[in-house]
Amino acid sequence: MRGSIVFIVCACSAGIACKPDIGNSPSLITGPTILAVRGEPAEVAAGQMVTYELLAVDVDGPIPAGNSVISQSAEWAVCTVPKPPIESNAVSKHCLDTTALPGEPGNTLTTFAAPMLEDACSLFGPIAPPVQGDQAAIQPRAPDITGGYYLPVRVSLKIPPDLRRPGMATAETLVGFALERISCGLANAPAADLTRYNKTYTLNQNPTIAQLTWKQKGGAPQLLSPVAPGTFPVTQIERSAGPVEFELSWPDGAAETYPAFDVGTRELYTTREAMRVAWYGTSGKFASDTTGRTEYDYALSLTNEWTMDTEGPVNLWAVLHDSRGGVAFGYYPIEVLP
Amino acid sequence: MKVVQLVAVACLLGASAAALAQGEGVGAVEAPKGLKPPKLLKFIEAEYPADKKASGVEAKVVLSIEINDSGKVGEVEVVAGAGPDFDVAAVAAVRRFEFEAATMDGNPIPVKIQYAYRFAIKEVVVKLGPQINFEGVVIDKDKKAVVPDVKVKLVDLGVETFTDETGAFAFLDVPPGTHMVELSSKELVTIKTEEAITKGKKKSVKYTVEAKEEDVDEEVVVRAPRIKKEVVETRVRTEEAKRVPGTQGDTLKVVQNLPGVGRSAFGSGALIVWGSAPQESRVVVDGVEIPALYHVGGMRSTVNSDLVSSIDLSPGAYGADYGRGLGGLVRIELRDPVREGVHGYIAADVIDVSGMVAAAPTPNLRFAVAGRQGYLDKILQQVVSNSVGDYFPIPRYDDYQARASLTLGKDEELAATFLSSDDYLRRTVPSNNPREIRTQDTVQHSRRVIVRYTRLFADGSSLAITPSFGYDENASTLKFGSTPALLDVVAWQYALRANYRRRVASSMTLSVGLDFQERNHEALRVGSVNLPPREGDIYVFGQPPTSDILIDHWKVNYIAVAPYVSSEITLGRLTLTPGLRLEPTVLDGNLKNPQSDIAPNIGWTRLDTVQNPVPWRSGVGEILRYLPNPRLSAAYKATSRLSFTAGVGVYGQPPQPEELSPVFGNPKLGTSSAVHFTLGSSYRLTGTLGLEVVGFYKKLYDLVARNELSSPPVGQALQQTGIGRSYGGQVLLRQELVKGFFGWLSYSLIRSERKDRPDTAWRLLDYDQTHVLALLASYEIRQGLQAGFRFRYTTGAPRTPVLGGYTNTFTNQSEPIFGAQNSIRLPAFYSLDLRVEKMFVRGRNKLNLFLDVQNVTNRKNPEEIAYSADFSQRDYISGLPILAVMGARLEF
User: Fold this and answer.
1) Domains of chain B (ranges plus CATH)?
2) Mean of the per-residue pLDDT values for chain B?
3) Is the peptide bond before A233 cis (omega within 30 degrees of 0)?
4) Are the beta carbons of B806 and A293 separated by less than 8 Å?
5) Global ipTM
6) Contact A153, A79 (CB under 8 A)
7) What is the per-residue pLDDT across A143-161, written as a single tens digit (0 to 9) for each?
8) Mutation choice for B interface testing from A16, A81, A273 by most B CBs within 10 A
9) Alpha-carbon distance B308 to B285, whole Å?
10) What is the pTM of this model?
């Protein structure tokens, strides 16, 4: 009866609801996965060059260095089609087409360089595209909560048959999208706010990871250094000592302050980036897949508990995001001892 | 003659069935020695003033009576009166008393005594269990033959039955008092008469009726023309509805089991009628539109069942008196409060507590107040150790009603009704990542004040005027991390419905009316254009909105004046009901374009109407397009048992106020329209067992759909390019309540499709359900003990498959890649529900205990598809497991 009553209220009617636990936790890496794409710089104006760096991983480590099978370069493309209101995803389904604009190959197998589209602010931003003749004016794009507009950049990886898994974009392709922040200024705001905005707004910069420490119950925090792919030896952690508490910190200033325009109150205000960390591992279980700080939380670190379940080498990754799209990531291989 | 003054001691007996008049001595004065007081030999019962008896007024009249030496009553004077009517009745009765003369020392003498005549209502002792206490037979005056299939209705109680093959009818446990009896059938004019049911006595009547012509005989008074009935309409007696398993005694929830009605997903409470989307159907109470039939979650209806006289579901092709909807129509008629005494109930189960009190302070004034308060959230806090509210939605609701009815004169009534309904839903999905904390806060308020004036004229015509006003608020605030999704719509509704009906010829009744409605909306919306989702949107359950934040704050006013006219024409066995309805609507908005600090904000006003879907757009076609919308139904009674029906009509619906936002919608949207066709037949196997088969086809035009362009023009996020069609049929085999048993088997085969743009293919409506089956029955095993079951089966709703996913590295979440829209379905739903109830009767009080067990097989019915985070796996979110709801209800 108790279960029944509980379920009465689990109406699961719309929007948000109770979901059954299906599949693995997002933090558990069981096959080829795209974890992050970092655009450098994190925010650019139209025409400026951006270099994108892919963080794709497998159970054996980063791709491609850790896995010789997925060795070819990632395929990149810049999407030129905005998402229509009829679609519910962040990017248009047309961006999955191969007809999107190619870019320049980067200097590594996982990097790519492409200029920000000249018309990015009219395609994806607040500037209404010019109309011709009797054509009706086009509805400009709306910003996100930080006032940002974003260009979708697609990266695809062809996955060998023995590594393919359900849930990929196609039977053989793994796809990820980066959303590169476009500097378009402020639109549809009073002139005074616009002036102040232009004076005080600074382009977003990618955050950096100051350090990742780990400790077990009763122990002192120890530094877990990021390493280049394939670099060993690695940190050794004893499973018998219990769960590990990781703490990832970032330097003061990584969470930048910036002016934003409140579309509700129609006022300009100064706010700060929210920070979050996505945690990944090829074994064990994190207490939370992601942890975060709000823009009003000035702490400079985030913790997460990790419970080991098998002995042997484990690959860990931490991806630090700021709320304007800036990214930093680190690779932390460890070895779990009995 | 010397008259001895004394106080008599009279032992008086005598009582009517419903009331007892008693006499008693007054005071006590010592009698002279040797005096023997007079002895009452013959008591005459005074005529109880009818209006006083009806309203339960008791009285005592003190009289001075002269009794001569032969025991005859002489002068009678009122010493202490109780009002002229009581006094006159008492004096008249006492004058006819006979006494044995008083004696003094054995010699008869005249005396004067004081006597108190008491008018008292006799207490009723109700026998346990239902008994027939009102029965009769209906006979054709000319043919001298019994008339089967006549509907006999106790109007004030809202119960009805039909005469069987022998023309007989019977009612169980009709409460004592005077009741309005209404007889109607397609062969007869509707007639009304009053019958007094007395306590402990069975009333047997014979009604002599005359077909087609109005007539008056000794027992029957013609009051009004024939009642119009929709060509496809299912009406359920409230007594039956309360006993349907799975409804927890909620009369209005029975609608979910009627033919043509799809099953709404658990927790939604939506009404899906003949393949229409929920927002396309209308619910009216006493002719006034209300926003929802059920509370959020669908657990309870928003109107107290004990105030409901009847529920009528018209899934389509209904008459000209209603409109503003493309789908079905649910009409709720409220019942008059009790006509005597004080009555009411209090009930409680695990979901909520409710109660009602009804009284008639005067013979002409009656009122009732009722209320319900949900407390599931509070119960959960007690029985669940964890903070369930953090994870699960906890709906909370309340509703209150008040109704007063005043008899202004013979067949002239004024009723005032207040309806109030509130819903609250709050939930939070916590996370260590503030970006992934999800909260939902939904509030719905609805108020209605309805005044209804009705009058039946001596010539049989009738007039009903219903002014009303109301307030609705529907606010939903969701937050996905820092991304908000807010929609708050506040509306004031002012309405006036007036209808005049009269017989204009022996075979023709004409009805004219006006349906005026003004709604003033103010709306605020913040967030993505994709949330809340629309019918036809492709998304997965629980998908967060995109991060773009739009905002709009706009006002929209509707002023709709809909005159209508309809008629009933009887041509032998054929009855035609043609009608016309014109629905011009003035739409007015304050924003033509998105709000701007730079450009001036311009409003808009336009006149719109429901256009007839004429295929050609020039010449005569253009004229026909703007003519009043036709409605026509026909019924042909082939035999006394077999009849055929057909109907067609044009219907329209203005855009939702949310759709007229220049940011999220399109201020230029106009009225959508639909054409309904129905064809059916009914066969009455016995007097109470009937079989109905109905087929239907609906075509919908100018439906609102999202703009498919990547960059839509300003103010055109929505466009009016959609069309739709629904078609299918339904079968209903129904045994009405007889000898404690009732039940029905209903099956609907429906397909509902939409085409959002001319260049797209037909797709299934999100709510499409191919097969809908309901089998239910309830039986009174023995006095006061009833048991029933309900079995339901429905095809699963369509869903769009997810073929795979890609990673959005900005959010660290996968997003779905969809296949063909609505090309898969949820697995079928079926559920067996049981209900047992026991009623204990003690005097006027009744205690009803019930156990309502839903899904007794504990089947895990899939309600939605849930996917793993990377869309590699999927599973189903199940609906109700086995659920036992126990409750009690005390009536007084």
Assistant:
1) 4-121 (3.30.2420.10), 132-222 (2.60.40.1120), 234-314 (no CATH), 329-891 (2.40.170.20)
2) 84
3) yes
4) no
5) 0.93
6) yes
7) 999 999 999 999 998 888 8
8) A16
9) 9
10) 0.78
